[in-house]
Structures
1.
Amino acid sequence: MKKRLVVVKKSDGSNGRRNHHWSASSGSEVRYAECQKNHAAKLGGFAVDGCREFMARGEDGTEEALNCAACGCHRNFHRREVDAEVVFEYSPPNSN
């Protein structure tokens, strides 16, 4: 008999692994939130531009898709949010 556990979690993109009698599959949606680039770093200060959400400048698969249309920064400067649904199936050992 297999038991099924569905976990919906929000993570920062890190991925921990475990070696048990588990099989896992996941589906996730990645979003990029506010820009965190410090525009005043050269002056020794801290100032962000206020861009609240990443909007791709071009179509998926192009270099322009990695730049934000609102602030011009690379996507890596925006905070990454991952909504994931992870399904674990566990097969207990036979109790014979």
Note: The beta strands are 3-11, 22-35, 78-90.
2.
Amino acid sequence: MAAATISSSLYDLLGIPATATGREIKAAYRSLARTCHPDVVAVTQRNKSATEFMEIHAAYSTLSDPQKRAIYDRDLFEHQRGRTRRYSSSMGLSVSPPLRSSGYGVRNWESDQCW
């Protein structure tokens, strides 16, 4: 399964249902990583493969963390109820709802200080 550049959800990207367990999420990620990782594909497909792998890894990173997944699920529910917004993550993914729980682009008092 090749990862899509535009996906309706991170669950679709990994090819799993929204009710998937942590074990199912990990299994889907590992399966996709075996086929899309830049180290295992032909040299001519490495650039495309690297992009796909980064998308898959971002999805796994969000869905494998219970707190990030809860935030993502809430945002996905709001999106499906009609509050349509399109977001882009820091890696160029076009996924709705946002991947804001990944930690990139989030500022807080501690990270803004120069120690």
Note: The longest strand covers residues 6-7.
3.
Amino acid sequence: MVSLNHFWVFSLALLLLASPLLQVVRCQTDSDEAVQATEEANDTGIVGDDVQDLVDESFLPAPGIDTVCVFPKNSARLVTAGEETELLVGVKNDGDSSLNVIAIKASVHLAYDHRLLVQNLTTQVFNNGKVPASAQATFPYLFAVSKFLQPGSFDLVGTIVYQIDQNPYQSTFYNGTIEVVEAGAFLSIESVFLVTLGASLLALLGIWVNGKIQSLSKKAKRAPKVEVGTRSTDASIDEWLEGTAFTQSQANKSKKKK
């Protein structure tokens, strides 16, 4: 019975001695996680849901930052409704500090009234979008307009959100027209116009060439004119020959014929 009591006392003492050690280990683990989270926050400047807050707001562009947009293999900027379209966003950092690209967003508006919003497109977030000073980088962006959007011309506004020295900025990399076409439609309105214009020019060229050929063939068929008749004598020559033997012989010939 005494040995059993000694065992419980010994076990309780071990637990009391071990509990501070467990607390220290747990505190150390929590501290490491906090340090890691702080380092990640310093890398991106934002944590978690703060991305959406930055995307929803509007900011001014930072000085020394230039952006450009390219539609790879799609210079006509044709966007098929319901299908993904890719564009590339180039960022050039001529500032003194590095920047962190947070997200790229875009929206579709009516071409004749930019205030009328048609669709907010997908927001693409970047976890490691660092661009050092005096450097440039390219970021891909995929978007898809609604498959129910009717074909036609619309305005696309693309914006890139970034941070410099923990301060948020944004720049508009594209603000122009796109041509939305139906899925499976091979010809757009612009393509139909170009094809029609080309066919008209070819028809006019054919008519002109045909007219030239007919004109040349008519000239070739014309025979050279041969004038038949007596040759008129110059009056001055007749006066000079008057009274000579030539005029007398000519007069005698005419009398004989009579």
Note: The beta strands are 65-70, 78-80, 85-93, 99-110, 117-120, 124-125, 130-131, 135-143, 152-164, 167-181.
4.
Amino acid sequence: MPNCFTFPVVIKSCGKINASVEGEEIHCVLIKGGFRANPFVGTTLIEMYASGGVVGAAYKVFGEMCERNVVAWTSMINAYILCRDMVLARRLFDLAPERDVVLWNTIVSGYIELGDMASARELFDEMPNRDVMSWNTMLNGYAKNGNVEACERLFEEMLERNIFSWNALVGGYAHNGCFFEVLGSFKRMLVEGDVPPNDATLVTVLSACARLGALDLGKWVHVYAESIGYKGNVYIGNALIDMYAKCGIIENALKVFNGMAVKDLITWNSIICGLAMHGRGVDALNLFHQMKNTGEKPDGITFIGILCACTHLGLVEDGLSYFQSMVDDYHIVPQIELYGCVVDLLARAGFLDRAVKFVKMMPMRADAVIWAALLGACKIYKNSELAELALERLIVLEPKNPANYVMLSNIYGDLGRWKDVARLKVAMRDTGFKKVPGCSLIEVNDKVVEFYSLDERHCEREEIYAALTGLTELLRSSGYIPDLMELGTGA
């Protein structure tokens, strides 16, 4: 006969696979067997009902328990948190006869999930016997809710830090787009040396290198990861492929890919999208067929890479065939990004009418990316009529983005319609917004330097402009003539 150790395992399994009917049947069986009062069984029942959103049934179980230990109280409070009912969760917390550090962390996490960092911090300050996980919970809370400064201050207050503390700081910077700070905190972590980085740390750092174009540091992380035992780690391998591809070294990305004994879907997607991004559409399509032969099932991101490859190769009909295969063969519901890829495929190939017709047939409204793709194609094929339509849509979707006016202005300039160019300049000025200047990132002496077009504030502007002048003269001596008709490009 099943006993008090059997039932929790089966009940937990019911919760994992959302088998609510079977869970209720087992509940009936254990009541008949006399296990209703068992706190271990009762706690598991609370968790099962809570995972299914049946918080009323969970509370009924809690109320029928003769002996409620701190684990049962924690499970019931967590049940209310899962239902986003912090009022009842806090009421039970205040009534709990015993509170251990897990229960305190649970209620603090509940407030963090709702974005109520003030209440979370208030409880955190009241918490007795805080452990390092308590601090990490608050760190992650500040990072998740976008308060990087508070995350930094709390990190500095910590007397003890573990790998999750460092990952919370590094991940918090990455989550909020502070990629320079990601690299800085990683270097500090290595210098202090108390806690070695793990694969999660290295993946975040490699992603930051990819975003900043910090190739030299990315290469160093590659060697370092292998030296500390992460050679063959699939997560680091995936991050390396992405980093090398985005930093322009696709051959290194292929070497990492070919050297991986274990490949998952992200591995295949990273290399296929990387090859497509580098214009190596044939290689991307060949790898896609290899992927299918290995039995790996593609997803929407795979097909974004495939459609991008077809766009670079001008394979319009093949791209449309892949799009239909995605729906028919793999039952993938296309998201707007995939529809955007098809619009770009048609528009770049010059089939502007087909692209507009496709936009009208989409099950959702076209976003700014799709209309911008059409506007860009209009410049190539000098279609001012469609460009005006695209700009109308973009003004509604992105009223604060003057770059759209610049694009149409360039089209008018190519057609010699100078009155329309002047009219658009006035319209762009009346918006009160300026086009964001071009920004360059260059890695020098293990640091990533950022500067903008016509940047007079940079501390090394004299050296920068001297180098740019020399490069311009060198280009002109080789026969390059800059296109000065590109208005307001910020290049």
Note: The first helix runs from residue 6 to 16.
